[in-house]
Write a structure and sequence with these properties.
about 90 residues, mainly alpha
Length: about 90
């Protein structure tokens, strides 16, 4: 998630190491490297989904991540803590 946030916040300065590795491997094999736009633009946009949906899909991905974090946070907060009376009752079920 952190890497994704960095690439969105600083798209020109942060390059994925896997993309750089693929680009180097393609060039070493005598093929053209990836375009400057990178892996996602080359393989995903306009191949899997039209370019006009990019912003929508980014927003949906962000919502999914935030909802999953909220769900995890809620579950962690509801766990009984050791030493509390309800913790003993919870383990006896």
């Amino acid at each position: 998630v952190g890497w994704g946030a960095l690439t969105v916040a600083f798209p020109v300065t942060v390059i994925c190491p896997l993309t750089a590795w693929e680009d180097g491997a393609r060039r070493a094999a005598g093929q053209a490297g990836l375009p400057a736009s990178g892996f996602i633009d080359h393989y995903i946009e306009n191949v899997v989904y039209p370019d006009r949906y990019t912003t929508l899909l980014q927003a949906l991905a962000a919502v999914v991540v935030l909802v999953s974090w909220l769900g995890a946070w809620t579950r962690i907060r509801r766990r009984p803590r050791a030493g509390r009376e309800d913790a003993a009752a919870h383990t006896e079920r």
